[in-house]
UniProtKB/TrEMBL annotation:
The keyword rRNA-binding does not apply. PANTHER family: MONOOXYGENASE YDHR-RELATED, PTHR39169. This is Monooxygenase. It holds the Pfam family ydhR. Keywords: Monooxygenase, Oxidoreductase. One of its GO terms (molecular function) is monooxygenase activity. The keyword Oxidoreductase applies. The lineage of its organism: Bacteria, Pseudomonadati, Pseudomonadota, Gammaproteobacteria, Alteromonadales.
Length: 104
């Protein structure tokens, strides 16, 4: 069953276009993570938060990625990492126009 992973953490930047430029290689490498279907990058400069929403093939892949990503962030000096794995309610998500073709 597909799983959604939500991760956020305290982040002082860079944000926006500068973040896009500096993290391009990281973004490309994430496509090679086992079981990863897609990622939406999230940022909130006002509240100094970074993170992402991911769709994985199953919970084992999501959990393994969360553990690896948390370790990588800690190596970068990030201390407060919040990660949650969710089931997806497909009928309700479809009503609200979620891009769920990858979930079936």
């Amino acid at each position: 069953m597909k799983k959604l992973l939500q991760v956020d953490f305290d982040f002082t930047g860079p944000f926006g276009e500068e973040m896009s430029t500096l993290l391009m290689d990281l973004a490309q490498s994430i496509n090679n993570e086992p079981g990863m279907i897609w990622k939406i990058w999230t940022e909130n400069p006002k509240e100094q938060l970074g993170g992402g929403i991911y769709l994985f093939e199953n919970e084992a892949y999501a959990q393994a990625y969360l553990e690896m990503h948390s370790a990588r962030l800690k190596e970068m000096g990030v201390e407060k990492i919040r990660g949650h794995i969710f089931d997806i309610n497909l009928p309700l998500s479809t009503i609200n126009h979620a891009p769920m073709t990858e979930v079936k």
